[in-house]
Write a structure and sequence with these properties.
240 residues, alpha/beta, Rossmann fold, 7-stranded mixed beta sheet, 7 strands, globular
Length: 240
């Protein structure tokens, strides 16, 4: 249901009625990974926040000096709430928009950031090694749009619970024209923050990972043992 805008409309409406109503922070608050984001911050950045939800991420970036900021979500309920909640920050614009069809010209942003948006799009997948073509195409639509709206020296930051052996395959496509690196953060449970720098180069290993996305992973029906390859009796020949 995380893939459906109706689910989020209903959820945001319900959360607004709670006495302790406030933003929900998937993968922890900004302060948990701010040290990783700050490496890419500089004055005059134009930023886009994908799938903003009710997180304080946009306001946190503004407090870091990032301005202007456009925050999008495909839930009208969410955008209405965040517009009202942040009415005192005119430098942040809130827009209802689908991340697969960004309504901005090419090279509009120096920074694009998402936290959990891609995860929600992949929630149906049962086997992380073999992603269905529909989801591969869905993620590709979003990443292609991100690449398009980034400036030639721009940066895309993606925060997720998905480790590199699963997620890097999606990011490491030559057509996006960016490099891929990954950091972890968290205490009891680790999350992953990917930094993709436009104009950067993929490593040969990342290119191989990217190519593997389009090849089904074959899992052997039986796991071979040492005896299948060698008839030596190692235990008998150990000299102690």
């Amino acid at each position: 249901m995380y893939k459906e805008s109706g689910y989020w409309d209903t959820r945001y409406e319900r959360e607004r009625a709670l006495p302790e109503a406030g933003g929900h922070e998937w993968f922890g608050p900004y302060e948990d990974f701010a040290h990783l984001v700050r490496r890419q911050l500089r004055s005059g950045l134009r930023a886009l926040v994908l799938g903003c939800g009710t997180s304080s991420l946009s306001a946190d970036l503004y407090a870091e000096g990032v301005s202007p900021i456009i925050s999008i979500d495909y839930s009208p309920i969410c955008i209405k709430e965040m517009t009202e909640r942040n009415a005192d920050i005119p430098e942040i614009s809130w827009m209802v928009m689908d991340a697969r069809q960004l309504q901005f010209p090419d090279e509009s942003f120096d920074l694009v950031i998402e936290k959990g948006t891609l995860d929600s799009m992949m929630v149906d997948e049962k086997d992380p090694w073999n992603i269905t073509p529909a989801t591969v195409n869905l993620v590709d639509e979003v990443l292609s749009e991100v690449s398009r709206v980034l400036t030639p020296s721009g940066c895309f930051i993606s925060v997720t619970f998905s480790p590199p052996h699963f997620r890097t395959r999606h990011y490491a496509q030559l057509k996006y024209d960016w490099s891929v690196s990954c950091d972890t953060y968290g205490r009891d449970f680790h999350y992953f923050l990917y930094t993709l720098l436009k104009g950067g180069k993929l490593t040969p290993y990342d290119i191989e990972r990217g190519q593997s996305l389009h090849k089904p992973r074959v899992i052997p029906k039986t796991v071979p043992t040492i005896s299948a390859y060698d008839d030596e009796d190692f235990l008998r020949n150990i000299q102690i």
